[in-house]
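Hi support team,

I've been running sequence recovery on a batch of backbones for a student project. Most finish fine, but this one hangs at about 90% for roughly twenty minutes before it completes. I'm not sure whether the input is malformed or the queue is just slow. I've pasted the structure tokens below so you can try to reproduce it. Let me know if you need the job ID as well.

Thanks,
M.K.
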């Protein structure tokens, strides 16, 4: 069953200037993105910095309101709700509980004035999941143990923990309301490599126990490959390729995806492909994107049509979607 889906999702941020702060331009962070998230599945989202990955996650969880497009949430009873324009109390009753998010920087995502007990307790009390304070405290201790922390840590403050421990606390807070979907925005990028693996394995263990779906946003292709059932590749606010994880890594089709894959160093010196596909220049500005395909100024295989027409995504087989004129009519 689908938990969340989006169609033609757009998010533009206004740029204001002048004495009266009038809108002079827009940052086109998302342009017509489609996504479906099923129960128990993991969707990986990759791309360069500034491609719209985090904006997509924050728009799905309704931190940002979409400029255009439709977001559909399916509640536990199977009823669908259009939450695209819903705010506050007008959201579906279980949306805030079912869709949770953990953020990139564990140093910024915890309130320094709150103890860990209060931090983890807050969503439990807000959603009235347990009948009394004693049950809540027992549940907090259980959650801390689940994420690999001692229950006695509940009386401490965030500044007393390392980055990896803070991220575990953020995970405990997010799963405290038993969400059906957890959006992970670069949850390991601020952590050491050894701690990254611990956090990733923790998320996988929780997913196996609860059948929770994940949207895993990262620029680390190896981590996304390990975590995901399906991967979406973004460039300048658009999805240029989407496919099952193994299919994307075995046979990337879009020139941008091929360039990303060639930038991943191999542990096997006989299979070094670093720099095999080289790109020209820098990504264009999302304030003034190029006409046609957003990737055409840097694409080694660009054609005349690429400069004029935005390509539509086509299925080249097995759910492997590519938005490129090279595959038009496939």
């Amino acid at each position: 069953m689908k938990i969340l889906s989006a169609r033609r999702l757009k998010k533009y941020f206004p740029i204001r200037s002048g004495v009266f702060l009038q809108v002079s331009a827009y940052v086109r962070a998302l342009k017509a993105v489609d996504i479906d998230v099923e129960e128990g599945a993991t969707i990986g989202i990759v791309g360069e910095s500034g491609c719209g990955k985090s904006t997509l996650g924050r728009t799905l969880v309704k931190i940002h309101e979409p400029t255009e497009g439709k977001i559909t949430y399916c509640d536990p009873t199977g009823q669908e709700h259009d939450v695209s324009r819903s705010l506050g109390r007008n959201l579906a009753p279980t949306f805030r509980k079912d869709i949770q998010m953990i953020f990139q920087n564990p140093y910024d995502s915890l309130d320094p004035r709150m103890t860990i007990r209060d931090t983890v307790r807050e969503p439990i009390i807000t959603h009235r999941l347990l009948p009394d304070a004693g049950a809540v405290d027992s549940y907090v201790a259980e959650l801390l143990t689940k994420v690999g922390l001692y229950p006695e840590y509940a009386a401490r403050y965030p500044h007393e923990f390392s980055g990896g421990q803070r991220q575990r606390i953020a995970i405990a807070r997010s799963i405290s309301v038993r969400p059906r979907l957890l959006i992970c925005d670069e949850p390991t990028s601020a952590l050491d490599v050894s701690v990254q693996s611990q956090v990733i394995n923790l998320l996988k263990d929780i997913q196996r126990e609860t059948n929770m779906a994940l949207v895993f946003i990262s620029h680390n292709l190896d981590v996304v490959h390990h975590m995901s059932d399906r991967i979406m590749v973004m460039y300048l606010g658009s999805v240029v390729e989407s496919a099952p994880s193994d299919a994307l890594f075995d046979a990337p089709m879009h020139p941008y995806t091929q360039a990303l894959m060639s930038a991943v160093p191999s542990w096997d010196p006989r299979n070094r492909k670093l720099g095999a596909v080289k790109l020209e220049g820098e990504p264009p500005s999302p304030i003034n994107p190029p006409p046609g395909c957003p990737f055409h100024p840097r694409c080694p295989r660009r054609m005349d049509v690429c400069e004029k027409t935005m390509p539509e995504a086509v299925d080249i087989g097995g759910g492997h979607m590519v938005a490129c004129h090279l595959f038009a009519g496939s």
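--
Follow-up from support: It reproduced on our side and the slowdown came from queue contention, not your input. The radius of gyration is 21 Å. No action needed from you.
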